[in-house]
Design goal:
Length: 434
């Protein structure tokens, strides 16, 4: 993926935000009180859990899920340490710094999202997430390899385009879920969450704009070319014309009228990613003394079209963490429905805890963009954790060994590496500091 110029507007927004923080002290205090007041009570009940997956599917590094989980744990730890070691007088500066740091960290996870598709297929590639000439990319793959993938397994080839934004969206959803379940302070993730959600919307809307029509020439050396160029335009072109002349970089002028209409529709629908209370500083809603609820809406491209999802998080007392997800999958002419139920971090004895995710769906047959036939499928994921409690002098409340068992039919699941029927065991660890 080439990280397109839609992101160039974010540094300007951050610059304005930094200037705004240079107001008089009483104005700053007012801003802090308005923005951070919702944190005070919730932070007293936070249970920080930092998970890391060592092996996921195979010893090959990394799957998107594995990389995202590790990145987010490190990011949260860094944010928490920063706040703890910064006096309250200067803590208001951390948010704009977080956002600026996230702007330059996003390519790391975004490009790894693209590369993880190739890793799962056994295709070698090189992630180059640092900006060079205004772009970050994945390189080291020949035209023949990519054309063969397109001609023999189109859903994987389309996902090669869409996986970067899929990763960005999935990470922001993880961040929101942590906050909803009182497993993280809002202040530790809000900077990254805001930039990622805004970045997802900007990427789709800028790709859909006819005014963003710069012509990009492919590098002479095919191994120096980005694997797909503009993620969104490339996916749209290959979905509609999978047997057309092969080239990587798709410009707006390369798209046919019906493809442009489809692209504009994606740009408009992407705005639903902003329908999220966390963007406006609201973590969850208190239903009664024992129940809190939160929600969020999302929209991204998938290997056969698009996906819209509505998420509801329910927090019952201290350990009841339930998530409900309803999805609408769309190919060219049809809508298919899906539902998922999840239970997280439920202890059933002093040393044992479990999480479970069960999903059911109807998706296009063979993950086709053009078919009218849908196929029913599903997936289940169970995580079992054994917790070892630390001594009084230990900085850790507990350390756990985590084992995951996952099974799925053919179909697409965000962050899961396989589009085929699959079974795997994952191993990792988590820790909870005092």
């Amino acid at each position: 993926m080439k990280l397109n110029r839609s992101f160039s507007i974010i540094p300007k927004l951050l610059f304005v935000s930094v200037l705004s923080f240079g107001q008089k002290k009483n104005e700053i205090d007012t801003l802090k009180n308005n923005y951070f007041s919702w944190q005070s009570e919730a932070e007293k009940k936070i249970t920080d859990i930092y998970p890391f997956t060592l092996v996921d599917y195979s010893p090959k590094l990394y799957t998107m899920r594995q990389f995202n989980e590790g990145y987010l744990s490190f990011y949260r730890i860094t944010s928490d340490i920063t706040y703890k070691h910064t006096t309250k007088k200067y803590q208001y500066l951390i948010l704009p710094i977080q956002m600026l740091a996230s702007l330059y960290l996003i390519p790391l996870t975004h490009e790894e999202g693209h590369r993880s598709v190739l890793t799962n297929l056994g295709i070698g590639s090189i992630s180059a997430p640092l900006f060079k000439k205004g772009v970050a990319k994945v390189t080291g793959v020949t035209d023949l390899t990519l054309k063969t993938l397109r001609d023999t397994d189109l859903p994987y080839y389309i996902r090669l385009h869409t996986a970067g934004i899929e990763s960005d969206y999935a990470l922001s959803k993880r961040e929101q879920q942590l906050v909803m379940f009182d497993q993280e302070k809002i202040r530790n993730v809000i900077g990254d969450f805001f930039v990622r959600r805004l970045g997802v919307v900007l990427y789709y809307t800028f790709s859909a704009s006819r005014y963003n029509n710069t012509t990009e020439a492919e590098e002479a050396n095919e191994l120096e070319r980005d694997i797909v160029g503009d993620d969104v335009r490339g996916a749209v072109r290959h979905l509609h014309r999978p047997t057309s002349t092969f080239y990587r970089y798709t410009n707006y002028g390369d798209l046919l009228p019906d493809e442009r209409r489809y692209l504009r529709n994606i740009g408009l629908w992407s705005l639903v990613n902003l329908a999220n209370p966390l963007l406006f500083g609201k973590s969850n809603f208190i239903i009664n003394n024992t129940l809190k609820a939160g929600f969020g809406i999302g929209y991204i491209m998938v290997p056969f079209g698009t996906m819209t999802e509505e998420n509801i998080w329910l927090k019952y007392k201290h350990n009841g963490n339930l998530a409900i997800c309803v999805r609408q999958y769309n190919n060219k002419n049809n809508t298919y429905w899906a539902i998922g139920l999840s239970l997280f971090d439920l202890p059933f004895s002093k040393h044992y805890a479990m999480s479970a995710i069960v999903q059911g769906w109807k998706q296009p047959e063979k993950l086709s963009f053009t078919t009218n036939k849908g196929i029913v499928g599903g997936a289940a994921n169970f995580r079992f954790s054994y917790r070892i409690f630390g001594r009084e002098s230990s900085p850790l409340k507990w350390l756990s060994v985590d084992g995951d068992i996952r099974v799925k039919t053919e179909g697409f699941i965000p962050e899961d590496p396989s589009l085929k029927e699959a079974f795997n065991v994952a191993i990792g660890f988590s820790f909870c500091p005092k």
